[in-house]
Write a structure and sequence with these properties.
Keywords: Flavoprotein, FMN, Membrane, Oxidoreductase, Transmembrane, Transmembrane helix. By secondary structure, the chain is of the alpha/beta class. 43% of the residues lie in helices and 14% in strands. Strands 4-5-6-7-8-9-10-11 form an 8-stranded parallel β-barrel, surrounded by 7 helices. A 3-stranded antiparallel β-sheet has the order 1-12-13, covered by helices on one side. It has a two-stranded antiparallel sheet with strand order 2-3. Bound molecules: flavin mononucleotide and 2-Ketohexanoic acid.
Length: 405
């Protein structure tokens, strides 16, 4: 057994002991985290593998179809290498970033991911506390296993932070309307309207495993709509609307709220142009293919990013272009920013941290990424975010050579 394997064995034993007593659970999570050698997101991923049942693990990790989009989201980062500059005084790196009227500690936010109580009993509440501690904005899924009010309150116990409600539009529009209004009165700052999921992608493992939300958990943000008797079952295709459009739906959504509306799941310049021009006052997009869980064989999100940035910024420099898909390292964040993203979001890295150690695990994931990002900036000669430019990158060209952007 090599050293990391031994560490993870110790961790599993501690976690098993913790399961006998909720009161010492948090302490043991912290202790185990300190004891085991978790140095990077891959360590968290590896550690999380042994801690979940196969259907849940597959639900978190897998992509759709053959998993090509999922794999290419990750491998696309290696098509770019960093061109570091030297002798530039990096003694005082500045990573803070403003969006939605607030400041975050670095240009990274938590992507909305469904059903976090399957990863850890504290689920979304633990994520909210870690996000607040790290001063990282949090996206909350419509399919959360905690109410959107309780999630925000959990983070607010520590400090103010920014929450964004990810929205799926239900066939019953009244249910959606209630959700949007609840988010606004709870103090959420934005709606992230997911646009890449008119139907659920072809997720083989969900079908093979007959995936169901464990019966002790609920989707409490819209209980009244799907009905208690169906809570064990995620009735995605029956409940959500596959007839959402640029004109009707966006204007209807705009009429419900003053919150900022960002569109999540955009990957072409044509759609970004429509978003910028929309009279629904859309203020941002998230270039995303849903972590490779929807359209397999879609372009990797890094390959989509440049055309989306160009389409947005040529029309409106303040229009926000965020990015998600495949971020596992600080240098991935650096590359996405160098290609013009205003910021990035992470999905699975948070779920692995949550699985491994609840709040402490998510905090660990965020801390690792922030430290790696800062180090990448320093070693690339970029003191501020605006120093990160496309000229810091070279892209793999034909013949395997790298040429500068
Ligand atoms: C388990 C899981 C659940 C997700 N649930 C949602 C969701 O409810 N709504 C949504 O818009 N995106 C959802 N996503 C997509 C993420 O918001 C994000 O786009 C993706 O995870 C980014 O890729 P990454 O996991 O490689 O970081 C989910 C992703 C995962 C892995
Ligand atoms: C099954 C509910 C949809 C959650 C989601 O967006 C995802 O699993 O990617």
């Amino acid at each position: 057994m090599d050293k990391p394997d031994k560490m993870f064995l110790i961790y599993y034993v501690l976690h098993f002991l913790a399961s006998f007593s909720n009161s010492i659970n948090n302490f043991i999570s912290w202790f185990a985290m300190a004891l085991t050698d978790i140095l990077c997101i891959h360590d968290l991923e590896k550690a999380a593998q042994g801690m979940l049942s196969q259907p849940i693990l597959d639900y978190f990790n897998d992509g759709s179809g053959d998993g090509v989009a999922l794999m290419e989201n990750i491998s696309a980062f290696e098509k770019y290498k960093i061109r570091p500059r030297i002798l530039r005084n990096v003694s005082n790196i500045e990573t803070k970033k403003r969006a939605l009227g607030s400041t975050m500690s670095f240009p990274l936010a938590i992507a909305p991911t469904a059903m976090q109580c399957m990863a850890h009993e504290e689920g979304e509440k633990a994520t909210a506390r870690a996000a607040a501690r790290a001063n990282v904005f949090m996206g909350v899924s419509t399919f959360a296993t905690t109410t959107l009010e309780d999630i925000k309150q959990s983070g607010d116990c520590l400090c103010d932070n920014v929450y964004m409600l990810q929205l799926y539009i239900f066939k019953d529009r009244h249910t959606t309307e209630i959700l949007v209004k609840r988010a606004e009165s709870a103090g959420y700052k934005a709606i992230l309207l997911t646009c890449d999921t008119p139907r659920l992608g072809n997720r083989h493992s969900m079908i093979r495993n007959n995936f169901r939300l464990p019966s002790h958990l609920q989707l409490p943000n819209f209980d009244q709509y799907i009905g208690k008797e169906k809570l064990g079952d995620v009735k995605y295709p029956n409940t959500t609307d596959d007839n959402i459009t640029w004109d009707e739906t966006l204007l209807w959504l705009r009429s419900l709220t003053k919150m900022e509306i960002w569109l999540k799941g955009i990957s072409t310049a044509e759609d970004v142009e429509l978003a910028v021009q929309s009279s629904a006052n859309i203020t941002g997009v998230i270039v995303s293919n849903h972590g490779g869980r929807q359209l397999d064989s879609a372009l990797s999100t890094l390959d989509s990013l440049s055309e989306c940035v160009k389409a947005a910024k040529s029309k409106d420099k303040s229009f926000q272009v965020w990015f998600d898909g495949g971020i596992r390292k600080g240098c991935d964040i650096f590359k996405a920013l160098a290609l013009g993203a205003d910021g990035v979001m992470i999905g699975r890295a948070v779920l692995w941290g949550l699985t491994m150690g609840g709040e402490e695990g998510v905090f660990k994931a965020l801390s690792i990424l922030k430290a790696e990002f800062e180090l990448t900036m320093a070693l690339s000669g970029c003191r501020t975010l605006s120093d990160i430019k496309s000229s810091n990158l070279a892209r793999k060209a034909e013949g395997g050579f790298f040429t500068r952007l």
